[in-house]
Amino acid sequence: MFLQLLPVVAFFALLLLRPSSAQFPPAVAYSHLLKSPLNSNITISYKTPPPGTCTTVFANQTQYTGYIGIPPNTLAPIQQNYSINTFFWFVEARVDPATAPLTIWINGGPGSSSMIGLFEENGPCEVVQMADGSYGTQSRMWGWDRSSNMLYIDQPAQVGFSYDSLTNASYDLLEQTFTYPPAAVPAGRPAYSFLNGTFSSNNAWATANTTEIAAHAVWHFLQGFLSAFPQYNPGTRPNTTQVQPAGIHLFAESYGGKYGPVFANLFQDQNLRRSNGSLPRNSTLEIKLESLGIINGLVDDLVQDYYGATFPYNNTYGIQAISQTDELNSIFAFRSTGGCSDKILACRAAINKTDPAGEGDVDATNGVCNAAVAACQMVSQAYYYTGRNAYDIRQTNPQPFPPAAYQEYLNTAAVQQAIGARVNYTESSTAVYDAFTSTGDTIRGGQIEELAALLNAGVRVALIYGDADYICNWQGGQAVSAAIAALAAAYTPFLSRAGYADIQVNGSYVGGAVRQYGNLSFARIYDAGHTVPAYQPETAFQVFSRVILGTDISTGQPIDLRAFASSGAANSTHTNKAPAASAAPTCWIRSIASTCTDAQKAMILAGAGAVINGVLYGRAADYVAPSGTVLAGVPGSLPTSSSSSAAGPAPSRAPSSSTDGAPPTGVYVATGARVGAGPGGAAALGAGVVIAALLALR
User: Which segments cross the bilayer (predicted)?
Assistant: First the structure.
């Protein structure tokens, strides 16, 4: 099951060769090279990207990019005979970064880069095309830096800008395969489709192969990051020398439904080991998790896969993507003797007996779990034959949204030098995907129990699902929330006492429905696909902010979570309107498999058409230049406009109005009741207020 975003396309073997294009990353100079004060074997190399690299609302929001290096055998007793060089991108909050929360963002895959989240979803900036056709960045109104310091991590090793060992190779954009050492372009192929550069080794043995192992690497990463940047450690506050446990928020998407619960529980386990003396207190930091958010996550196949059978036929968009016969056959594939659910249980029984630590090193058990993966793929087979998109049931393939312009931007020499990148950027790693599938990691389970344990430990758990996604659909997510509540003793009234309340996004729009009981919440986001913040940025931001603040997710009002239950209907019955036709896709050459039609792939293979600024056109004359008024930053240069001075001090962090009248800081708190119909048939709202100083609600 490809969760984000790993299509592997196999076409033709290499034929006669000719010279290929080269795009090796430029030499990098870091402003800081240091060793972790907690572990001298862990190195930290970072720099501050030049202004404009990722344009923020306020020019004086500090950013850091770089690598934390973890040498072989650091994860012992886990076998780790490879280096881990984890890339990170940190951005300060817009308001009071010294006291703002710290949120870690992780994308899924397994093998997908968190630069997806930064540039396509919730980061402080987004990539736009400028008048000359090149790409730059603009600040994002609803970036999550509006409420929190943000840390984006490419993990595990070999994902995105992260790597094990630097290796020169050729990358075939059409087949999404690597050739070591670098080679020449296959005969008849255009040079732009076959690139020489620097990448990871692409060896599946040189990365994590289970979520448990990935969790240990991230824990060591955070030990290095928090020790190197104590000013952003929520446990270290101004005017005090006392270090408290670091209170952080972890948000993960897609396969992050596996990552999030396992990572969070490892943090809890390591804290316990520090307290009982199993880990040295003077050379480790306690990582105290305050909230865990999962966005359209695959949490447990045993709970969710059933809805992969039913959702294509029975969804709130009125789209019957498959026939009822296909639906019944898919249900049979899930429930039948020897089918998906039986094989999941067999896998988990084998793990409990032979691999309880989840290290994926027992071949027989891996085989049992792999068989379960294969059986469960049959449940969704009928849907994939329809040609509809996995991440948005409203659309047909190829994927029309979100655009892949950021991949072009991140592969320019100026940007790579600005951020200190040592490898060329790839959105997804097939090596990591192969490593995880070799152990049947997706089927192994335990996440429901871990989420229940987090609730029992006082951690807020928020499940957030866009209702147009198929692959991790909201009906399955809703079932996960019920399963978690059933295992956490204090949360058994989750379904009986808490109803669905409207998510009041602003003074005129309801963006979804939420069931919230104490620290557990499930939110259905209307008209959003798999990557919720890309589709509904304002709704996603308001929900995120309310989760990390511990307020009413419906209104943003302060509440006592110990005694809170949302009021509303027992079921979320809102119906959506599907578009009359799918959006026209754009064929991005760095995302050929997911954004290009078969005809366009054939065109590339034949060397036909024209590629302009990373996009394939049937002919050069089809290209339409962007507006001459597009303003964007590039490394070393911020956007300018006729209304701003060319020089002068950086703007303060005081709230100010944006061009559309909305302030660029603060969260919305609804203070009135619903009063009528809003945009798109959603309910309009009464009065509300934007709390400009976020910490006023803390």
Answer: 677-697
**Catalytic residue ranges:** 254, 469, 530
Half-sphere exposure of 242 (CA within 13 A, CB side): 2
441: helix, coil or strand?
helix
- Tens of pLDDT, residue by residue over 536-558, are 999 999 999 999 999 999 999 99
Give the CA distances from residue 426 to residues 179, 407, 518, in Å, rounded to whole numbers and listed in that order. 15, 8, 40
How far is it, in rounded angstroms, from Cα 3 to Cα 617? 29
Query: Quick one: tokens of 178?
Result: 């690597």
Residue 238 CB neighbour total at 10 angstroms: 8
Using CA atoms, how far apart are residues 305 and 340, in angstroms rounded to an integer?
A: 8
**Stated pTM of the model:** 0.92
Q: Which of 421, 424, 420 is nearest to 30 (CA)?
A: 420
Specify whether the CB–CB gap between 524 and 543 falls below 8 A.
Answer: no
Q: Which amino acid is at 655?
A: P
Task: Give the whole-number percent of the chain exceeding pLDDT 90.
Answer: 81
Give the β-pairing of 185-186 and 194-199.
Answer: unpaired
Name residues whose C-beta falls within 8 Å of residue 280's C-beta, 6 or more positions apart in sequence.
274
Compute, in degrees rounded to 10, the torsion defined by CA atoms 185, 191, 197, 199: -80
Q: Is 565 helix (H, G, I), strand (E, B) or coil?
A: strand
Q: List Cβ neighbours of 147 (8 Å cut-off, separation of 6 or more).
A: 93, 100, 101, 541, 544, 545, 548, 549, 667, 694
Averaged pLDDT for residues 394-400: 94
> Which among 270, 263, 264 is positioned nearest to 211, based on CA atoms?
263
User: What are the distances in angstroms from CA 344 to CA 28, 105, 252, 337, 364?
Assistant: 47, 29, 24, 12, 15
| 535's tokens | 């589709």
Amino acid (1-letter code) at residue 221? F
How many CA atoms, within 13 angstroms, populate the side-chain half-sphere of residue 431?
22
| 129-138, 392-401, 642-651: the lowest-pLDDT one | 642-651
Tell me: pLDDT of 18 over 60.
Answer: no
Q: Is the per-residue pLDDT at 320 higher than 50?
A: yes
Q: Are 200 and 431 in contact (CB under 8 A)?
A: yes
Average pLDDT of the chain?
89
Q: Each residue of 223-242: pLDDT tens digit? A: 999 999 999 988 776 666 56
Burial label for 57, CB within 10 Å (0-12, 13-18, 19+), is buried
- Report the side by side order of strands in the sheet with 194-199: 21-22, 194-199, 167-172, 177-179
| Residue 489 half-sphere exposure toward CB, CA atoms < 13 A | 2
Contact (Cβ atoms closer than 8 angstroms) between residue 393 and residue 535: no
Residue 382 and residue 326 in contact, taking contact as beta carbons nearer than 8 Å = yes
User: In angstroms, rounded to a whole number, what is the distance separating the alpha carbons of residues 382 and 31?
Assistant: 53
Residue 63 C-beta-side C-alpha neighbours within 13 Å: 25
Structure tokens at 455: 């609730």
Q: In CATH, what class is 17-296+407-438?
A: alpha beta
Helices marked H in 277-362: 301-310, 324-335, 340-354
